[in-house]
Structure formats: structure tokens, C-alpha cells
């Protein structure tokens, strides 16, 4: 037997976190089935009750795969590289194929355990009747196995590219969310427009990168989701795209399983101040922000921790912030323009809903990446002891770190405002709605930022804090959407409305009259909930920071 398989799989199983995950999933799946289990000893012959239970189980399994599977392969290779054991593996008699197969097998075996933890709930669901063993229950597990394979190979490929475990987790979860959500956008934009047959075919295949349409088809929810989720002819496209992308990710990773994986060629560069006068004049004329210019000292009125975070973080540097803001502004304008060209089929409300979802996805992607390592990265890298040695108070340290992440998120949100201005130009009466939407998005950002910082501060290792924070944030924002997908069957209107109060996202979509959200009354209750949760998270973060500054 391949020794790498045993080492990788047993290493995951020995982790207390893996055991806790499996036990928690088993309990959650059992509770999900019991919540909709008929109180009497009989069920209806139409199979409605069993279908409701099956939908809860299916969406819960999908969420479990999306949240948990990418975390382990994202750190598999980079941890070996950082600890120095990857060079030993490459020097061993094992071929790169055997090393890769061993590592991917260990991750996939854990993914199988995640799926097996749902078998008792699936058996109970099938025992109720009305669920086909092959075309529904069996097909659901086939889709989830293929999805686990795709996410595992994607995580391994990202892990072979990055230089730290926390970077591997951030990039992997960003790629997973991109495949899960952003792959649906091209189909959304071309639906109802005068798109050619070739463009429609391309967007249809791109949509197959997301598992959501396939799972919704199995759940019988083809008419519940938005237009980008409907019109899925069969599951063959998803299977073909998933297997093909998994093979591509695996081959790319295998091409790097040699000694070139340790090469990091970097240009030494030259500071602008050390160049000739003509070169300095040229760069000042043609560069808005010169990345190679020597930075000035920190002014007395600025928080030094905030400046330190900006200068030591890639997206905190001025040139990267400007690029990020420009990209967000261009995407916002292009999406609004493309949607406005088919405004008779879409309506301005659909355009607004799309913009809200785009902004929320940016917050979900960036907030954990920026805030989860504010405290843990200092503890992991040994910088926390240096901070404790300074005369800075815990409040100044904490405020500086939070402001560095808040400014970046604020600039990204402001960059998407041109899309709303175009909406107001199309329909001037939407001015009040846009104001309420922006307030809801502001509370969404505050909630994501405080939750990411509070959860990340509870862990010492940066990779662990980043992975756990992404799971918490994605679960926090995705859970209300899963309840909304199951509105009317199996969840009633009141339950869905209460679930949408968890985050202000539902309130923003309700205010903008996005399709499927207009019937819910969520303001101002959603703002109050976000404010209370954010305050609670700030209290946790403050206590943890104070405790760490006082610990010996």
C-alpha cells in the first residue's frame, strides 16, 4: 500500500478537528431529518414530506462539501514544503505520481467519511418513500463525489503554487466560491438578450462549473432559483466539466512535483530614489503611485499599526489598492451596462439584485482574507511579542489592525457605486431604495469584518484561523440563501423570513425588489441583528486582545 496514503489519511483522522467535524455533521444531518419528520406514524402517498426531508439533506450535504473539503488539500503540499519534508519525499523511491496519488487519496478518503456520516439520515429519508434510490438519492451522491474530486484537485494545485498555508486556504476558498457562484453570472447576463448560439453554448458550459444547478435539478427546484440556475438540460454537462477540470488540475500539479517547485526567482529591483534624475521625473509623470519609491515616515497623527499593516500586506499597498478599486469599478459598470441592454427582459430590479450579490461575494471573499490573520499572523510569526514590548495600548493595536482591513473593504464597496448610479439614471425613483441598500451593505461589511476578526483571533496558527474563518463566514452568509431556496417547500414563509434576518443580505435584496425577495419584510430588524452580532464579536475580539497582551 502507498505509505503516503496512510500518512495523509491517518494524519487527518488523528486531528481533533476532523473528529469534531464528523461528529457535528452526523448530529446536524440527523437533526435536519428529525425537524421535518412526520409527527404521526404515516406519511402522505404523494411523497411531499419525504421530498422536503430529502431537500434538507441534499442542501446540507452540498454545504458540507463546499465548506470542509477544500481546507485539507489547500495546505497539503505547502505544509510539506514549509516543514522541509517535501524534499525528502521527492528524494524517496516514490515517483511524483505515487506522491500525488497518496496525498489526493488521503483527502478523498476523508471526503468519503464526510458523505458517509450522512448515510443514516439518507436511509431514514428513503424509508419514508417517494424518493428514488437511483435517479435522486444515488445521483446526489454521485454529484457530491465528483464535486469533492474537483475541490480536492483544485486545492492541491493551489497548494503547489503558494508559499504559505494561510495563502493556500485563502486562494482555494476564493476559487471555490468563484466556481460555485461566479460561474453562473455569464448565463445570467446572456439570458433574455440577443446572444448568439455560440455564446449561449459557452455560457451554458461555464455554468456547469457550479454544482448548484445540478443539485437543484435533483432536488426538483429548477423553478425556484434565479434564471441563471434554470434551463439545465441534464447532469451530463456537469459531470463532463467537473471530470475534465479535475484532470487538468491534477496534471498541472503533477507538472510541478519536482525540484522546480522550490524555485522562487525574484528580481532585486531598484528604489526610484536611487535612479537618475530623468528616470525619477519620468516615473513621477506616468505613475499615479510609484511602487518603487521610498516611503515617507509615519506622521504623528496616524496609527502606526495601521500603517504597518498597509505596508506589510500586499493588498494594503497603494498600487494594489488602486488596481483593485479600478477592477471593481469597471466590473460594476460593465455588468450594469450589459444587463441594461436587456432591460426589457430583466428589469432594473434584477440588475440591482445582481449588483448586491456581486458586492456580497466580494465582501465574503475579502473580509476573511484581510481580518482572520490580524492577531493570529502576529502570534504565528512571532511579531506579537514585539507588539507587547511597544508602549502601544491594546486599544491602539486593535484599532489600527481593524482600520487597515476596514479601509480596504470600504474602498472596494465605493468602487462599485457607479453601477448604482447607472441604475438611478435608468430609474430615478430608485434613489431611496439605493440608499437603504447601501446601508444594508455597510452593515454586511461590518458584520463580516468583525466576525472574521473575532473568529481569527481565537487561533494561534494563521492557516487554521483562515480556514475556520472562511467556513464560518461562508456558512453565515450561505445558510439564509439555502433556506430561501427551500421556501414554501419545505420551509414556510415565516421561517425563511427569520433565516434571512441572520445577515443584512436578504434585506438589501428585499429593498431592491430582487425576484423572490420582495415579499419579505426585513427592515429594520436585519440592521438590529447585524448591530448586535457585530457588537458581540467586537467584545470577543477586545477581550482576546487584552488577554493576549497581558499573558506571560
UniProtKB/TrEMBL annotation:
Location within or outside the cell: Membrane
Membrane association type: Multi-pass membrane protein
TM regions (residue ranges): 18-35, 56-78, 98-127, 139-159, 171-189, 235-254, 320-339, 351-371, 405-426, 432-455, 467-486, 525-543
Keyword annotations: Membrane, Transmembrane, Transmembrane helix
Pfam hit, one: ABC2_membrane_3
Domain ABC-2 type transporter transmembrane: 49-245
Gene Ontology molecular function terms on file: ABC-type transporter activity
Keyword Membrane assigned: yes
Main location: membrane
Keyword hit for Cytoplasm: no
Protein name: ABC-2 family transporter protein
Source species of the chain: Stieleria marina
Lineage, broadest ranks: Bacteria, Pseudomonadati, Planctomycetota, Planctomycetia, Pirellulales
Amino acid at each position: 500500500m502507498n505509505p503516503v496514503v496512510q500518512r495523509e489519511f491517518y494524519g487527518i483522522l488523528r486531528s481533533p478537528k476532523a473528529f469534531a467535524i464528523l461528529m457535528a455533521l452526523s448530529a446536524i444531518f440527523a437533526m435536519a431529518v428529525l425537524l421535518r419528520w412526520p409527527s404521526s406514524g404515516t406519511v402522505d402517498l404523494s411523497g411531499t414530506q419525504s421530498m422536503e426531508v430529502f431537500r434538507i439533506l441534499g442542501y446540507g450535504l452540498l454545504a458540507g462539501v463546499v465548506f470542509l473539503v477544500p481546507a485539507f488539500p489547500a495546505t497539503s503540499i505547502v505544509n510539506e514544503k514549509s516543514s522541509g519534508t517535501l524534499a525528502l519525499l521527492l528524494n524517496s523511491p516514490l515517483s511524483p505520481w505515487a506522491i500525488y496519488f497518496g496525498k489526493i487519496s488521503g483527502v478523498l478518503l476523508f471526503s468519503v467519511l464526510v458523505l458517509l456520516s450522512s448515510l443514516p439520515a439518507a436511509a431514514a429519508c428513503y424509508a419514508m418513500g417517494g424518493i428514488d434510490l437511483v435517479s435522486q438519492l444515488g445521483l446526489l451522491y454521485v454529484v457530491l463525489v465528483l464535486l469533492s474530486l474537483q475541490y480536492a484537485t483544485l486545492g492541491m494545485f493551489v497548494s503547489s503554487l503558494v508559499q504559505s498555508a494561510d495563502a493556500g486556504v485563502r486562494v482555494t476558498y476564493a476559487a471555490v466560491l468563484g466556481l460555485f457562484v461566479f460561474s453562473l453570472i455569464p448565463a445570467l447576463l446572456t439570458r433574455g438578450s440577443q446572444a448568439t448560439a455560440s455564446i449561449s453554448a459557452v455560457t451554458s458550459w461555464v455554468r456547469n462549473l457550479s454544482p448548484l444547478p445540478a443539485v437543484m435539478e435533483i432536488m426538483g427546484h429548477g423553478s425556484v432559483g434565479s434564471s441563471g440556475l434554470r434551463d439545465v438540460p441534464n447532469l451530463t454537462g456537469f459531470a463532463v466539466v467537473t471530470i475534465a477540470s479535475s484532470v487538468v488540475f491534477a496534471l498541472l500539479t503533477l507538472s510541478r512535483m519536482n525540484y522546480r517547485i522550490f524555485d522562487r526567482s525574484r528580481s532585486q529591483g531598484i528604489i526610484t530614489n536611487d535612479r537618475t534624475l530623468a528616470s525619477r521625473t519620468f516615473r513621477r509623470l506616468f505613475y499615479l503611485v510609484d511602487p518603487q519609491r521610498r516611503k515617507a515616515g509615519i506622521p504623528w497623527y496616524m496609527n502606526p499599526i495601521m500603517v504597518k499593516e498597509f505596508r506589510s500586506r500586499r493588498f494594503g499597498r497603494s498600487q494594489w489598492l488602486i488596481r483593485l478599486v479600478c477592477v471593481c469599478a469597471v466590473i460594476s459598470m460593465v455588468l450594469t451596462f450589459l444587463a441594461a441592454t436587456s432591460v426589457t427582459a430583466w428589469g432594473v430590479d434584477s440588475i440591482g439584485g445582481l449588483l448586491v450579490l456581486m458586492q456580497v461575494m466580494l465582501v465574503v471573499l475579502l473580509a476573511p482574507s484581510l481580518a482572520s490573520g490580524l492577531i493570529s499572523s502576529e502570534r504565528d510569526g512571532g511579531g506579537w511579542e514585539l507588539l507587547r514590548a511597544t508602549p502601544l495600548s491594546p486599544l491602539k493595536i486593535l484599532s489600527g489592525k481593524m482600520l487597515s482591513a476596514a479601509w480596504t473593504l470600504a474602498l472596494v464597496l465605493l468602487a462599485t457605486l457607479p453601477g448604482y448610479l447607472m441604475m438611478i439614471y435608468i430609474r430615478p425613483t430608485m434613489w431611496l431604495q439605493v440608499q437603504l441598500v447601501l446601508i444594508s451593505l455597510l452593515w454586511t461589511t461590518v458584520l463580516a469584518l468583525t466576525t472574521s476578526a473575532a473568529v481569527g483571533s481565537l487561533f494561534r496558527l494563521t492557516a487554521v484561523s483562515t480556514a475556520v474563518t472562511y467556513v464560518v463566514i461562508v456558512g453565515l452568509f450561505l445558510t439564509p440563501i439555502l433556506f430561501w431556496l427551500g421556501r414554501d417547500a419545505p420551509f414556510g414563509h415565516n421561517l425563511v423570513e427569520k433565516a434571512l434576518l441572520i445577515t443584512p443580505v436578504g434585506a438589501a435584496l428585499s429593498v431592491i425588489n430582487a425576484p423572490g425577495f420582495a415579499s419579505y419584510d426585513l427592515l429594520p430588524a436585519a440592521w438590529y441583528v447585524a448591530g448586535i452580532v457585530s457588537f458581540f464579536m467586537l467584545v470577543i475580539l477586545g477581550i482576546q486582545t487584552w488577554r493576549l497582551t497581558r499573558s506571560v
